Every structure is written in structure tokens, then in C-alpha cells.
Prior knowledge:
The chain is an alpha+beta fold.
Amino acid sequence: MKVNTLSGRFLVLTTVFVVLAEVLILLPGLANFREDYLQTRLERAQIASLALLTTDMMIEPDLEQELLDNAGVYNVVLRRDAVRQLVLSSPIPQPISATYDLREEPFVNLVRDALAVLADSQNHVIRVIGDPVQKGGLVIEVTLATQPMRLAMIESGLRLLSLSAVVSVVTALLLFFLVRRLMVVPIKRVVAHMAAYAAAPEDARTIIRPEARIEELRVAEEALASMQHQLTAALRQKERLAQLGQAVAKISHDLRNILTTAQLFADRMEGSDDPAVQRAAPKLMGSIGRAINLCETTLAFGRAEEPPPRLEPFDLAGLVTEVIEGEEGLTAAVDFLSDVQPGFEIHADREQLYRVLSNLARNARQAIEATGKPGTIEIGAGDEAEGWWIRVQDTGPGLPAKARERLFQPFSGGVKKGGTGLGLAISAELVRGHGGRLELERSDETGTEFRLHLPRPLLLAGDEAAV
């Protein structure tokens, strides 16, 4: 158990309080035991003195010594009727070192004197003064040795310490496990639910269900459950909106290109001799223009995840021809060339690859048109060790340095004024979905070349055996 945990710190505090309780119990107990010990010696000495007085002080020395030994003292002085009388006496082995008056001794002094006796292992002779019991005199004084009292105090202290230690430890353990059960365990449960929810916030099973019996903890669990419900709903709504926005952005990008093509054809309709066509052409142009503007305004949405590509074999030459035919009708200033041999077969998603090549060809065409000079765009392909490569190169002005720095980042790599850069970002994502990569081979004043690298399909062990 670590000290910096709630259980560890509570255990340390419990230990400190147990030790403090032991001290508070032991010190008064030792002081009371010493006082009772001395009072007992005074009472025994008084009884021995009264027994001697009944014999008119006529007693054998051996019997007198026996009375003193039973009382545990050396001498007994009894003051009766203002007369101080040495009743019993025996030789004192050493001088008296201290005098204690039990008649008006404060409790603090009793504790201090008890600790002093325990701390001093030497045997001393002390005088003790007290009140006789049953009004058997005015004052009684005795002298006695401290060593027997010290040993009796140690024995009593050990018994008291053992008993109080058992009671304190049992109480502390009960308190520790009770607090742990009522507080630490519910707190750990809340923490565990928070960690599980953080790992999977969309999983409704990780939302805590309030079960604490302590009101404060239950309020905390209810607040946490409410927050988790709200956060989960917000995450789901945010995810749906993000997916919707990304999907709309991609659809808008491709739809804008389609509408641009339609706008060019509609523009040619204005030269028609048919009056009905001449009247409808401006309206058609306005409608298409508004649609293009709407598409452009939706491009602020994020990118949606593309579905996995459907890898199938197909003739790349036919696909390249479709791309070229879709672009060459839009301009007369650009020549399109295909360097793909008929029957050149690759494994890829035909529709996604069409989007990639169409985006690259369109960007190249627009770059050449922006110069006002004629140019050429060539699409070629070939085999390599890992799969196939496809290049799209042009004789345009090349990409600006700023555009090359963030070429494949959405909303950052646009070259044409008003462009968003989504075309290259979408193309790079589609190629990555095939396990390949889209790279800028070169871009300078002589033109730009993009190259696609597509890997061959993965073959499992059973497939290799079949081949």
C-alpha cells in the first residue's frame, strides 16, 4: 500500500492516533499506579504502627522488622495529638534523596514524578508524607526504596500498555476497514468508471450507475452519470455532424467539378440560333452558377472517411482514355497524351482511381490555362518490383514553393485562386487506402510530375500454394 494513496494516508493517521492514544492512556495510568502504590505503603505502615501501639511499644526486634517488611518501608513516623513519634524503625541503607507529600500533590506533578521514577534505574530512599486513614492520626510519614516501586510500575505499565494496545489496534482496524469500505472503495469505483469511460466514451456500458449509500458520494456519482450521458450524446452528435460535414465537403468538391463542366457546355449554348435555347441559356447559366457557389460554400466541412477500395483487375488504358476524354473537351489549349499500353492490367478500385487521375489532370489543365499558353499533359504507367506506378506530368509553370510545403493538406495546398486544395488531399487519401502513396516527383519551370505507387494484392499462404 502506497503512502500517497488515500488508504495509505489514512493508515498513517490511524497509526499516529493509536500511538497518541497509548501515550494518553499510559501516562495517567502510571501516575495513578504510583500514587496507589505509595498510599498502600502508608496504609500498611499505619496498620503496623497501630498494632505496635496496642502492645505499649513492647515488641521483639524480629517482629518489628517483620512488620516493616510487610509494609515495605524502613521507618514509620506517626503524628498524633501534635506529637511526632517514631513508631517503627530500621537501618536506612542510604540518605533520603527526596520527599513527596501526597496530601496536596497536583496531577501534573504525579505524572512528572512517575516518569522520573521510570527513567532512573538507581535505587534511592525517599520520604512519603500522607494522611492516615480512619483519622488514625494527623500525619504519617514513611521511608522506602524506589527500586521495588519502579519494578512494580514497569510490570503494571506493560499490562496496561498491552491491554490498551489491543483495544486501540482493534478499534483502529475496525475504523480503518469501515472507512475504507464506506469511502475508499466507492471512490475507487468512481475512479474506475471514469477511466473506463475515458477509454471508450461512446460505450454506454461505461457510464456509472449511482449505487453509493453515503449521500455525498451518491450525489457525486449522480453528477458524474449525468455528465457522462450529456458528453456521450454530445460526442455522438459531433461525430455525426463531422461525418456529415466531411461527406458533404467531398461531394461538393466533385459536384463542383461536374457543374463546372456543365457550365462550359451551357456557355456554348448561348451561340445557338434557336430562340428558345437563347432564352433558356442565361437561366441555365444562373442556376448552374448558384449550384457551384453552393458547393464552394460547403467545402468548409471536414473530410469524411472513404469506404475501403474494392480491388479488382481492370484495363488501365481504358480508364486513362475516359479521364482524357472528360478533360480535353473543356479546352483547346492543352493536348492530352496517353502512354499506357492497351491491355495493361492493374488491381485497384476503378472508380476511386478515376477520381485520383481526374483530379490530377484537372489541376494540370487549370495550371496550363492560367498561363495563357499551350501545353501538354501526359498520363503513363508501368510495372515496378512492388506493384505499378502511374505518372501524370504536364508542361505547366510548376507549383509555387508555398504550395509544395503543404501540398497534400486539405484547405492548405490550393494553387488556383479560390481553390481549397481538397483535390490533392482526397487523391492522396484514396491512394493510401490502396496501400500506396502519391508523390510529387518534380515541379519546376518545365512542368510538374506526380507519381502514384500502387502495391500488388496481398497473397496469403493458401493463395500462394494455389498459384
